[in-house]
Design a protein that fits this description.
The complex is a heterodimer of chains A (about 270) and B (about 290).
Chain A (H helix, E strand, L loop, with lengths): L8 E7 L2 E7 L3 H28 L8 H19 L5 H17 L19 H32 L3 E4 L9 H4 L12 E3 H11 L1 H7 L8 H4 L13 H14 L9 H9 L1
Antiparallel strand pairs in A: 1-2, 3-4
Chain B lengths: L1 H13 L7 H16 L7 H17 L3 H15 L4 H14 L2 H16 L7 H13 L5 H14 L4 H13 L3 H14 L4 H19 L3 H20 L4 H12 L5 H15 L4 H13 L1
Helix pairs in contact in B: 1-3, 2-3, 3-4, 3-5, 4-5, 5-6, 5-7, 6-7, 8-9, 9-10, 10-11, 11-12, 11-13, 12-13, 13-14, 13-15, 14-15
Classes of the chains: A mainly alpha (about 270), B mainly alpha (about 290).
């Protein structure tokens, strides 16, 4: 089947204000160009998602001592936040205990005894993360390149459809790439532009079709993150800061006036 | 379909099935299997695996070893062995098919060789808890408490450890330590009205059995009343909370209004339709 760029019959209506080009498109373009590009784009997106799942790095573990360190920080935060659930004496007791533990750095992980800053280039975790990032980029870059070549090779120069809403002329370059006409209304979309629109606009479709792609292992997904990563405050500083916060923290117990509150609530 | 899905998922998430009677377990097992066969499109993959995990433990409770093994194999083939849930299932199957010592050996080896240096917040804790639960029947409560305290030092924000430690201290009659552990629970789960009521109960027993009489006893009773009141403040229909409010306020002077309120609430429960709650409320009302 031979397609030609101008398989459409062109109607030119002339008026006093200037020329407005109206095209009548061959209806077969819908079935042989628009639909194949759309289907291939959707299927490629789904396939890419599955490939990304397969090559996704496994959950990165941490040493147990790092978890302990983080958990003591969360414990101090819990006392600051939920301390009102305790009576004043009980809160005071826990406050003193925690301030001592945090100020002494009892559960602080001392990985570098020579106190030198770690060299990021020697960090094996960094190369792993860079490699997985490169894999992710390749998994999205390669299919896009192949499909772009496919669209360009077979469907270059087609005007496929007319958008049902008006657009400003600035969209002309985006929507009519491959069709070199200065006068054509900006609402007409070329095949290569349809490809670009699909690349940018299919995410909601993927979200609908692949709604279950979130982490399966909920327990692991919900774990609190450990602290002290690159660019984050170091645990030692957080502990010291929390110790200071706790030292000056005042307790407002929920038990103050609880009888009156309950009586008012239920009487 | 939504209601059925919600029911199974809430049973699964709350682990309520661990407290079910054999008849209820059979009913749940059959109901859940029938539901899974319907291939509910609203069930996400994570929810599907959660229900499958529940079916595994239901099969274990119902002595369907082969079914449990098949479910484990399905999980392993789809997700691989490297998952905290899978570790837990494998250790359970080792207990069933081999012995407790085989399961202990598996867990200890895993923790020592792998999880101590490369873990997540679930795996290490889950397996340590399983280890304690498997070994607890060969040891006394002091040993269990040492293990729990050691674990709570490593994972201080896990309420389950503190709750279990509190239970053990309570059984040993060490009410002050039991109360300390429960205070940790309410600190970590601030709206846990069950924990507040349990803390009130422990403080009530402390006042009766340790402090016995005098100012110290009154202080413990007042603390027990405060915690019981907090419990009912969070949950209006909590029978245990109102029972403890009634019991503690009846032993304290000048708490007539609170006592009357608690009696009214217990009377409402006694007039209700739940036969178990009705009997409990009537018993409490008679004893006050």
């Amino acid at each position: 089947m031979a397609f030609s760029m101008w398989s459409a019959w062109v109607l030119i209506t002339t008026g006093s204000a200037g020329a407005v080009a109206e095209l009548t498109l061959d209806p077969k373009l819908k079935y042989w160009v628009l639909l194949p590009i759309s289907i291939v784009m959707v299927l490629t997106g789904i396939l890419r998602q599955y490939i990304m799942d397969l090559i996704a790095p496994s959950t990165k573990g941490v040493p147990r001592v790092k978890l302990t360190e983080s958990q003591w920080i969360y414990k101090a935060q819990a006392l600051l936040t939920n301390g009102s659930n305790l009576s004043a004496e009980v809160f005071q007791l826990r406050k003193e205990q925690l301030v001592e533990i945090l100020a002494d750095g009892k559960y602080l992980v001392k990985l570098n005894s020579d106190s030198q800053a770690p060299n990021p280039l020697n960090d094996p975790n960094l190369s792993d993360s860079m490699f997985s990032m490169a894999k992710g980029n390749l998994a999205s870059f390669i299919p896009q390149t192949i499909i772009m070549w496919w669209v360009n090779h077979f469907f270059a120069g087609f005007v496929l459809m007319k958008l049902p809403f008006p657009l400003t002329p600035r969209f002309k370059e985006m929507l009519q790439s491959g069709v070199m006409t200065a006068d054509l209304d900006v609402r007409w979309v070329s095949s290569i532009s349809w490809y670009f629109i699909s690349v940018l606009g299919l995410n909601p479709v993927y979200n609908l079709l692949l709604s279950d792609t979130e982490g399966i292992d909920i327990g692991v997904a919900q774990q609190p993150p450990t602290m002290g990563g690159p660019g984050e405050p170091q645990p030692e500083a957080i502990m010291k800061s929390l110790a200071n916060d706790l030292t000056i923290a005042e307790n407002e117990s929920c038990f103050d006036g609880i009888e009156q509150r309950v009586l008012e609530k239920y009487s | 379909m939504d209601a059925t899905r919600g029911r199974f998922l809430s049973i699964c998430a709350s682990k309520a099935y661990t407290q079910f009677s054999p008849e209820e377990l059979i009913e749940l097992n059959e109901g859940c299997k029938s539901y899974m066969q319907l291939k509910d499109p609203g069930l996400s993959q994570a929810q599907y695996f959660s229900l499958m995990e529940m079916l595994f433990y239901l099969a274990v409770y119902l002595c369907k070893d082969v079914e449990a093994q098949v479910l484990y194999n399905t999980f392993r083939d789809r997700l691989g062995e490297d998952s905290p849930r899978l570790y837990g299932m494998k250790s359970t199957l080792l207990q069933i098919n081999e012995s407790d010592s085989a399961a202990v050996e598996f867990i200890e080896k895993l923790i020592k060789e792998r999880l101590e240096v490369d873990t997540d917040s679930v795996s290490y804790l889950l397996l340590q808890k399983r280890l304690i639960s498997i070994q607890s029947k060969d040891h006394d409560k002091d040993w269990i408490l040492r293990q729990l305290l050691d674990l709570s030092e490593k994972f201080p924000i896990d309420p389950e450890i503190w709750w279990f430690a509190s239970q053990n201290y309570f059984e040993l009659g060490q009410f002050e330590r039991a109360a300390y552990c429960l205070e940790e629970v309410v600190l970590l789960t601030p709206f846990n009205f069950v924990a507040f009521a349990r803390l009130a109960e422990i403080l009530y027993y402390k006042s009766l059995r340790v402090d016995k009489s005098g100012a110290k006893s009154r202080l413990s009773l007042q603390n027990a009343l405060n915690n019981a009141l907090r419990s009912v403040e969070l949950s209006e229909s909590y029978l245990k909370g109102w029972s403890l409010v009634a019991l503690t306020s009846s032993k304290l002077d000048g708490k007539g209004r609170v006592l009357q309120l608690a009696k009214n609430k217990l009377q409402n429960t006694a007039n209700g339709f739940n036969s178990q709650n009705k009997a409990t409320a009537e018993l409490i009302l008679k004893s006050i």
